[in-house]
Amino acid sequence: LGKLIRAAVPALIVALLVAVLAARNIARPLGRLTAAVGEVAAGHYDGEIPAQKRGDEIGRIACALDALRRDLRQSRDDLQSGASTRAEMQSAQASVVEALQTALSRLAEGDLGSTIAQGFPEDYERLRNDFNRATDRLQQAMIDVSQSAEAINHDVDHIAQASEELGQRTERQAATVEETAAALDQLTASVSEAAKNAAEVDSIVGKAREDAQASGEVVRETIEAIAVIEASFQRISGNIKVIDDIAFQTNLLALNAGVEAARAGDAGLGFAVVASEFRMLAQRCSEAAREINTQITASSDHVQDGVRLVGRTGGALKEIIDSIRTIADRVTAIADSAREQSTGLSELNSAVSELDMTTQKNAAMFEQTSAASSDLRSAAQGLRQNVGRFTLGSRAESWTAGDTATEKAASRHAASA
Protein backbone atom coordinates (compact mmCIF):
# COMPACT_ATOMS: atom_id res chain seq x y z
CA LEU A 1 0.00 0.00 0.00
CA GLY A 2 2.79 2.45 0.89
CA LYS A 3 4.64 1.60 -2.34
CA LEU A 4 1.47 2.17 -4.36
CA ILE A 5 0.96 5.57 -2.76
CA ARG A 6 4.62 6.49 -3.30
CA ALA A 7 4.26 5.48 -6.97
CA ALA A 8 1.00 7.40 -7.42
CA VAL A 9 2.17 10.66 -5.82
CA PRO A 10 4.96 11.39 -8.39
CA ALA A 11 2.54 10.58 -11.23
CA LEU A 12 0.00 12.98 -9.78
CA ILE A 13 2.65 15.67 -9.36
CA VAL A 14 3.77 15.18 -12.98
CA ALA A 15 0.17 15.37 -14.16
CA LEU A 16 -0.41 18.56 -12.17
CA LEU A 17 2.77 20.07 -13.60
CA VAL A 18 1.66 19.11 -17.10
CA ALA A 19 -1.73 20.73 -16.53
CA VAL A 20 -0.15 23.90 -15.15
CA LEU A 21 2.39 24.06 -17.98
CA ALA A 22 -0.35 23.38 -20.49
CA ALA A 23 -2.44 26.21 -19.11
CA ARG A 24 0.55 28.53 -19.00
CA ASN A 25 2.28 27.54 -22.27
CA ILE A 26 -0.84 27.13 -24.38
CA ALA A 27 -3.57 29.45 -23.20
CA ARG A 28 -1.45 32.57 -22.73
CA PRO A 29 0.50 32.41 -26.03
CA LEU A 30 -2.68 31.55 -27.88
CA GLY A 31 -4.39 34.54 -26.31
CA ARG A 32 -1.57 36.81 -27.41
CA LEU A 33 -1.60 35.28 -30.91
CA THR A 34 -5.37 35.80 -31.09
CA ALA A 35 -4.92 39.44 -30.15
CA ALA A 36 -2.13 39.85 -32.73
CA VAL A 37 -4.28 38.26 -35.45
CA GLY A 38 -7.06 40.64 -34.49
CA GLU A 39 -4.68 43.55 -34.99
CA VAL A 40 -3.66 42.21 -38.38
CA ALA A 41 -7.30 41.69 -39.32
CA ALA A 42 -7.98 45.30 -38.37
CA GLY A 43 -5.30 46.42 -40.82
CA HIS A 44 -2.52 47.14 -38.31
CA TYR A 45 0.48 45.52 -39.94
CA ASP A 46 3.30 47.26 -38.07
CA GLY A 47 3.09 45.34 -34.76
CA GLU A 48 5.29 42.31 -33.99
CA ILE A 49 3.74 38.84 -33.74
CA PRO A 50 4.60 37.34 -30.26
CA ALA A 51 5.99 33.81 -29.50
CA GLN A 52 8.13 33.59 -32.67
CA LYS A 53 11.13 32.31 -30.68
CA ARG A 54 9.28 29.26 -29.31
CA GLY A 55 10.52 25.96 -30.70
CA ASP A 56 7.13 24.26 -30.83
CA GLU A 57 4.14 24.45 -33.20
CA ILE A 58 2.91 27.67 -31.57
CA GLY A 59 6.25 29.29 -32.47
CA ARG A 60 5.94 28.04 -36.01
CA ILE A 61 2.39 29.43 -36.21
CA ALA A 62 3.67 32.76 -34.88
CA CYS A 63 6.44 32.83 -37.51
CA ALA A 64 3.94 32.06 -40.24
CA LEU A 65 1.63 34.80 -38.94
CA ASP A 66 4.55 37.21 -38.92
CA ALA A 67 5.30 36.30 -42.52
CA LEU A 68 1.64 36.94 -43.30
CA ARG A 69 1.87 40.30 -41.52
CA ARG A 70 4.91 41.25 -43.56
CA ASP A 71 3.17 40.21 -46.74
CA LEU A 72 0.15 42.26 -45.82
CA ARG A 73 2.31 45.21 -45.05
CA GLN A 74 4.10 44.74 -48.36
CA SER A 75 0.74 44.50 -50.07
CA ARG A 76 -0.31 47.69 -48.41
CA ASP A 77 2.86 49.30 -49.63
CA ASP A 78 2.30 47.97 -53.12
CA LEU A 79 -1.21 49.35 -53.49
CA GLN A 80 -0.11 51.12 -56.60
CA SER A 81 0.85 47.86 -58.39
CA GLY A 82 -2.42 46.68 -59.79
CA ALA A 83 -5.86 46.81 -58.26
CA SER A 84 -7.10 43.40 -59.35
CA THR A 85 -4.06 41.44 -58.15
CA ARG A 86 -4.01 43.35 -54.92
CA ALA A 87 -7.69 42.68 -54.32
CA GLU A 88 -7.25 38.92 -54.84
CA MET A 89 -4.29 38.79 -52.50
CA GLN A 90 -6.10 40.81 -49.87
CA SER A 91 -9.15 38.58 -50.18
CA ALA A 92 -7.06 35.43 -49.78
CA GLN A 93 -5.14 36.91 -46.90
CA ALA A 94 -8.31 38.11 -45.21
CA SER A 95 -9.77 34.62 -45.55
CA VAL A 96 -6.64 33.10 -44.01
CA VAL A 97 -6.64 35.64 -41.20
CA GLU A 98 -10.33 35.07 -40.48
CA ALA A 99 -9.92 31.28 -40.40
CA LEU A 100 -6.90 31.56 -38.13
CA GLN A 101 -8.67 34.05 -35.88
CA THR A 102 -11.71 31.75 -35.53
CA ALA A 103 -9.58 28.66 -34.85
CA LEU A 104 -7.35 30.50 -32.39
CA SER A 105 -10.38 31.87 -30.57
CA ARG A 106 -11.80 28.36 -30.13
CA LEU A 107 -8.38 27.13 -29.09
CA ALA A 108 -8.00 29.94 -26.55
CA GLU A 109 -11.41 28.99 -25.12
CA GLY A 110 -10.12 25.44 -24.49
CA ASP A 111 -11.40 23.61 -27.57
CA LEU A 112 -8.33 21.50 -28.38
CA GLY A 113 -10.25 19.64 -31.09
CA SER A 114 -10.46 22.82 -33.15
CA THR A 115 -8.77 22.47 -36.57
CA ILE A 116 -8.84 24.43 -39.85
CA ALA A 117 -10.61 22.22 -42.38
CA GLN A 118 -10.77 24.64 -45.34
CA GLY A 119 -7.74 24.83 -47.57
CA PHE A 120 -5.45 27.87 -47.66
CA PRO A 121 -3.72 29.34 -50.66
CA GLU A 122 -0.52 27.54 -51.52
CA ASP A 123 1.65 30.15 -49.84
CA TYR A 124 -0.28 29.70 -46.55
CA GLU A 125 -1.03 25.95 -46.62
CA ARG A 126 1.99 25.27 -44.46
CA LEU A 127 0.52 27.63 -41.84
CA ARG A 128 -2.74 25.61 -41.76
CA ASN A 129 -0.87 22.30 -41.52
CA ASP A 130 1.32 23.58 -38.68
CA PHE A 131 -1.72 24.87 -36.80
CA ASN A 132 -3.63 21.61 -37.22
CA ARG A 133 -0.58 19.57 -36.19
CA ALA A 134 -0.05 21.78 -33.11
CA THR A 135 -3.68 21.44 -31.98
CA ASP A 136 -3.54 17.68 -32.61
CA ARG A 137 -0.47 17.29 -30.40
CA LEU A 138 -1.96 19.51 -27.72
CA GLN A 139 -5.16 17.48 -27.84
CA GLN A 140 -3.21 14.21 -27.46
CA ALA A 141 -1.16 15.64 -24.59
CA MET A 142 -4.27 16.73 -22.70
CA ILE A 143 -5.92 13.35 -23.36
CA ASP A 144 -2.86 11.68 -21.86
CA VAL A 145 -3.06 14.00 -18.86
CA SER A 146 -6.78 13.27 -18.49
CA GLN A 147 -6.18 9.53 -18.70
CA SER A 148 -3.42 9.78 -16.10
CA ALA A 149 -5.68 11.81 -13.82
CA GLU A 150 -8.49 9.27 -14.22
CA ALA A 151 -6.11 6.37 -13.54
CA ILE A 152 -4.70 8.14 -10.50
CA ASN A 153 -8.20 8.84 -9.19
CA HIS A 154 -9.18 5.19 -9.76
CA ASP A 155 -6.03 3.93 -7.99
CA VAL A 156 -6.54 6.40 -5.15
CA ASP A 157 -10.08 5.08 -4.65
CA HIS A 158 -8.73 1.54 -4.40
CA ILE A 159 -5.95 2.68 -2.07
CA ALA A 160 -8.41 4.53 0.15
CA GLN A 161 -10.76 1.54 0.28
CA ALA A 162 -7.89 -0.85 1.01
CA SER A 163 -6.52 1.52 3.64
CA GLU A 164 -9.91 1.75 5.32
CA GLU A 165 -10.41 -2.02 5.35
CA LEU A 166 -6.86 -2.62 6.50
CA GLY A 167 -7.25 0.03 9.19
CA GLN A 168 -10.43 -1.65 10.46
CA ARG A 169 -8.73 -5.04 10.53
CA THR A 170 -5.75 -3.50 12.29
CA GLU A 171 -8.04 -1.95 14.91
CA ARG A 172 -9.72 -5.32 15.50
CA GLN A 173 -6.33 -6.99 15.65
CA ALA A 174 -5.09 -4.37 18.11
CA ALA A 175 -8.11 -5.02 20.36
CA THR A 176 -7.53 -8.78 20.15
CA VAL A 177 -3.82 -8.42 20.89
CA GLU A 178 -4.62 -6.13 23.82
CA GLU A 179 -7.06 -8.69 25.25
CA THR A 180 -4.51 -11.45 24.67
CA ALA A 181 -1.85 -9.42 26.46
CA ALA A 182 -4.17 -8.90 29.44
CA ALA A 183 -5.01 -12.62 29.55
CA LEU A 184 -1.32 -13.48 29.33
CA ASP A 185 -0.59 -11.10 32.20
CA GLN A 186 -3.13 -12.90 34.36
CA LEU A 187 -1.89 -16.32 33.22
CA THR A 188 1.72 -15.32 33.88
CA ALA A 189 0.80 -14.15 37.37
CA SER A 190 -1.09 -17.41 38.02
CA VAL A 191 1.75 -19.57 36.74
CA SER A 192 4.29 -17.54 38.75
CA GLU A 193 2.17 -18.06 41.87
CA ALA A 194 1.88 -21.77 41.04
CA ALA A 195 5.65 -21.98 40.58
CA LYS A 196 6.15 -20.26 43.93
CA ASN A 197 3.70 -22.65 45.63
CA ALA A 198 5.36 -25.63 43.93
CA ALA A 199 8.75 -24.46 45.23
CA GLU A 200 7.31 -24.19 48.74
CA VAL A 201 5.74 -27.66 48.45
CA ASP A 202 9.07 -28.98 47.20
CA SER A 203 10.76 -27.51 50.27
CA ILE A 204 8.09 -28.98 52.59
CA VAL A 205 8.33 -32.40 50.95
CA GLY A 206 12.11 -32.29 51.22
CA LYS A 207 11.79 -31.53 54.92
CA ALA A 208 9.27 -34.36 55.31
CA ARG A 209 11.66 -36.73 53.54
CA GLU A 210 14.47 -35.74 55.88
CA ASP A 211 12.16 -36.22 58.89
CA ALA A 212 11.04 -39.61 57.59
CA GLN A 213 14.65 -40.66 57.05
CA ALA A 214 15.44 -39.52 60.60
CA SER A 215 12.43 -41.50 61.89
CA GLY A 216 13.68 -44.55 59.99
CA GLU A 217 17.03 -44.16 61.67
CA VAL A 218 15.28 -43.96 65.08
CA VAL A 219 13.31 -47.12 64.27
CA ARG A 220 16.50 -48.90 63.27
CA GLU A 221 18.16 -47.86 66.53
CA THR A 222 15.02 -48.93 68.44
CA ILE A 223 15.13 -52.36 66.78
CA GLU A 224 18.79 -52.68 67.72
CA ALA A 225 18.03 -51.64 71.34
CA ILE A 226 15.14 -54.13 71.57
CA ALA A 227 17.43 -56.82 70.18
CA VAL A 228 19.93 -56.01 72.93
CA ILE A 229 17.12 -56.16 75.53
CA GLU A 230 15.99 -59.51 74.12
CA ALA A 231 19.53 -60.86 74.39
CA SER A 232 19.71 -59.60 77.99
CA PHE A 233 16.42 -61.34 78.77
CA GLN A 234 17.78 -64.57 77.33
CA ARG A 235 20.89 -64.30 79.49
CA ILE A 236 18.76 -63.50 82.58
CA SER A 237 16.54 -66.49 81.77
CA GLY A 238 19.64 -68.70 81.69
CA ASN A 239 20.80 -67.33 85.01
CA ILE A 240 17.39 -67.92 86.55
CA LYS A 241 17.51 -71.51 85.35
CA VAL A 242 20.82 -71.90 87.11
CA ILE A 243 19.28 -70.43 90.27
CA ASP A 244 16.36 -72.85 89.94
CA ASP A 245 18.78 -75.74 89.64
CA ILE A 246 20.67 -74.52 92.70
CA ALA A 247 17.40 -74.27 94.65
CA PHE A 248 16.50 -77.80 93.59
CA GLN A 249 19.86 -79.12 94.71
CA THR A 250 19.59 -77.16 97.95
CA ASN A 251 16.16 -78.66 98.55
CA LEU A 252 17.56 -82.14 98.01
CA LEU A 253 20.43 -81.43 100.35
CA ALA A 254 18.00 -80.10 103.00
CA LEU A 255 15.85 -83.20 102.58
CA ASN A 256 18.86 -85.48 103.05
CA ALA A 257 19.94 -83.41 106.05
CA GLY A 258 16.49 -83.85 107.61
CA VAL A 259 16.67 -87.60 107.07
CA GLU A 260 20.07 -87.77 108.72
CA ALA A 261 18.86 -85.55 111.61
CA ALA A 262 15.94 -87.91 112.20
CA ARG A 263 18.34 -90.81 112.38
CA ALA A 264 20.44 -88.96 114.92
CA GLY A 265 17.50 -88.56 117.31
CA ASP A 266 17.58 -85.79 119.83
CA ALA A 267 21.11 -84.88 118.88
CA GLY A 268 20.04 -83.98 115.39
CA LEU A 269 17.03 -81.81 116.30
CA GLY A 270 18.88 -78.52 115.74
CA PHE A 271 20.28 -79.73 112.48
CA ALA A 272 16.77 -80.80 111.44
CA VAL A 273 15.47 -77.29 112.10
CA VAL A 274 18.27 -75.81 109.97
CA ALA A 275 17.60 -78.34 107.24
CA SER A 276 13.91 -77.46 107.29
CA GLU A 277 14.72 -73.76 106.93
CA PHE A 278 17.09 -74.52 104.05
CA ARG A 279 14.37 -76.53 102.37
CA MET A 280 11.80 -73.75 102.80
CA LEU A 281 14.35 -71.20 101.49
CA ALA A 282 15.12 -73.41 98.52
CA GLN A 283 11.43 -73.78 97.78
CA ARG A 284 10.90 -70.01 97.95
CA CYS A 285 13.92 -69.47 95.70
CA SER A 286 12.56 -72.02 93.28
CA GLU A 287 9.11 -70.40 93.31
CA ALA A 288 10.66 -66.94 92.86
CA ALA A 289 12.82 -68.25 90.03
CA ARG A 290 9.81 -69.80 88.33
CA GLU A 291 7.84 -66.56 88.76
CA ILE A 292 10.72 -64.49 87.42
CA ASN A 293 11.11 -66.94 84.54
CA THR A 294 7.39 -66.64 83.81
CA GLN A 295 7.61 -62.84 83.81
CA ILE A 296 10.78 -62.90 81.70
CA THR A 297 9.07 -65.25 79.26
CA ALA A 298 6.08 -62.92 79.07
CA SER A 299 8.40 -59.92 78.72
CA SER A 300 10.33 -61.78 76.03
CA ASP A 301 7.07 -62.38 74.19
CA HIS A 302 6.24 -58.71 74.58
CA VAL A 303 9.71 -57.82 73.33
CA GLN A 304 9.20 -60.13 70.34
CA ASP A 305 5.89 -58.41 69.66
CA GLY A 306 7.63 -55.04 70.01
CA VAL A 307 10.41 -56.17 67.67
CA ARG A 308 7.80 -57.33 65.16
CA LEU A 309 5.81 -54.10 65.46
CA VAL A 310 8.94 -51.99 65.24
CA GLY A 311 9.99 -54.01 62.19
CA ARG A 312 6.61 -53.39 60.60
CA THR A 313 6.93 -49.72 61.55
CA GLY A 314 10.38 -49.66 59.95
CA GLY A 315 8.98 -51.27 56.78
CA ALA A 316 6.10 -48.81 56.72
CA LEU A 317 8.53 -45.93 57.28
CA LYS A 318 10.71 -47.25 54.45
CA GLU A 319 7.68 -47.33 52.15
CA ILE A 320 6.71 -43.86 53.36
CA ILE A 321 10.27 -42.66 52.71
CA ASP A 322 10.19 -44.18 49.22
CA SER A 323 6.78 -42.59 48.56
CA ILE A 324 7.98 -39.25 49.92
CA ARG A 325 11.09 -39.54 47.72
CA THR A 326 8.89 -40.23 44.68
CA ILE A 327 6.58 -37.35 45.63
CA ALA A 328 9.61 -35.12 46.17
CA ASP A 329 11.01 -36.02 42.75
CA ARG A 330 7.66 -35.35 41.08
CA VAL A 331 7.12 -32.13 43.01
CA THR A 332 10.63 -31.06 42.00
CA ALA A 333 9.80 -31.86 38.37
CA ILE A 334 6.52 -29.92 38.71
CA ALA A 335 8.37 -26.98 40.27
CA ASP A 336 10.97 -27.02 37.47
CA SER A 337 8.21 -27.26 34.84
CA ALA A 338 6.24 -24.44 36.49
CA ARG A 339 9.40 -22.32 36.60
CA GLU A 340 10.09 -23.02 32.92
CA GLN A 341 6.45 -22.25 32.07
CA SER A 342 6.67 -19.02 34.04
CA THR A 343 9.83 -18.06 32.15
CA GLY A 344 8.27 -19.00 28.81
CA LEU A 345 5.09 -17.09 29.58
CA SER A 346 7.13 -14.07 30.61
CA GLU A 347 8.96 -14.15 27.27
CA LEU A 348 5.66 -14.70 25.44
CA ASN A 349 4.12 -11.82 27.37
CA SER A 350 7.02 -9.58 26.33
CA ALA A 351 6.59 -10.65 22.70
CA VAL A 352 2.83 -9.99 22.82
CA SER A 353 3.49 -6.58 24.39
CA GLU A 354 5.87 -5.73 21.53
CA LEU A 355 3.27 -7.01 19.05
CA ASP A 356 0.66 -4.80 20.74
CA MET A 357 2.92 -1.76 20.41
CA THR A 358 3.66 -2.60 16.76
CA THR A 359 -0.05 -3.03 16.04
CA GLN A 360 -0.82 0.33 17.64
CA LYS A 361 1.90 1.95 15.51
CA ASN A 362 0.49 0.27 12.39
CA ALA A 363 -2.96 1.61 13.24
CA ALA A 364 -1.50 5.12 13.52
CA MET A 365 0.34 4.67 10.20
CA PHE A 366 -2.88 3.51 8.52
CA GLU A 367 -4.62 6.64 9.78
CA GLN A 368 -1.84 8.73 8.22
CA THR A 369 -2.11 6.68 5.02
CA SER A 370 -5.87 7.24 4.93
CA ALA A 371 -5.34 11.00 5.33
CA ALA A 372 -2.71 10.97 2.56
CA SER A 373 -5.09 9.00 0.32
CA SER A 374 -7.80 11.59 0.93
CA ASP A 375 -5.41 14.42 0.03
CA LEU A 376 -4.28 12.52 -3.06
CA ARG A 377 -7.89 11.96 -4.10
CA SER A 378 -8.64 15.69 -3.72
CA ALA A 379 -5.58 16.56 -5.82
CA ALA A 380 -6.60 14.04 -8.51
CA GLN A 381 -10.12 15.46 -8.61
CA GLY A 382 -8.66 18.96 -8.92
CA LEU A 383 -6.52 17.77 -11.84
CA ARG A 384 -9.57 16.25 -13.53
CA GLN A 385 -11.46 19.52 -13.09
CA ASN A 386 -8.58 21.47 -14.65
CA VAL A 387 -8.40 19.04 -17.56
CA GLY A 388 -12.21 19.20 -17.87
CA ARG A 389 -11.94 22.85 -18.84
CA PHE A 390 -10.57 21.74 -22.21
CA THR A 391 -12.68 20.26 -25.01
CA LEU A 392 -10.70 17.26 -26.26
CA GLY A 393 -12.78 16.28 -29.29
CA SER A 394 -13.83 12.89 -30.70
CA ARG A 395 -10.74 10.96 -29.57
CA ALA A 396 -11.38 11.95 -25.94
CA GLU A 397 -15.02 10.82 -26.30
CA SER A 398 -13.95 7.43 -27.63
CA TRP A 399 -11.42 7.07 -24.80
CA THR A 400 -14.08 8.09 -22.23
CA ALA A 401 -16.50 5.52 -23.62
CA GLY A 402 -13.83 2.82 -23.49
CA ASP A 403 -12.86 3.77 -19.95
CA THR A 404 -16.53 3.74 -18.86
CA ALA A 405 -16.97 0.28 -20.36
CA THR A 406 -13.84 -0.89 -18.57
CA GLU A 407 -15.12 0.49 -15.26
CA LYS A 408 -18.51 -1.21 -15.77
CA ALA A 409 -16.78 -4.51 -16.55
CA ALA A 410 -14.62 -4.15 -13.45
CA SER A 411 -17.72 -3.36 -11.36
CA ARG A 412 -19.52 -6.44 -12.74
CA HIS A 413 -16.46 -8.57 -12.00
CA ALA A 414 -16.25 -7.21 -8.44
CA ALA A 415 -19.99 -7.82 -7.92
CA SER A 416 -19.73 -11.41 -9.21
CA ALA A 417 -16.68 -11.97 -6.98
TrEMBL record:
Its main location: membrane. Residues 398-417 are annotated as: Disordered. It comes from the Bacteria. Keywords: Chemotaxis, Transducer. One of its GO terms (biological process) is chemotaxis. Coiled coil: none annotated. SMART domains: HAMP, MA. Residues 148-377 form the Methyl-accepting transducer domain. Residues 24-77, 91-143 form the HAMP domain. It is found in: Membrane. The keyword Thylakoid does not apply. GO terms for cellular component: membrane. Belongs to the methyl-accepting chemotaxis (MCP) protein family. This is Methyl-accepting chemotaxis protein. It comes from Alloyangia mangrovi.
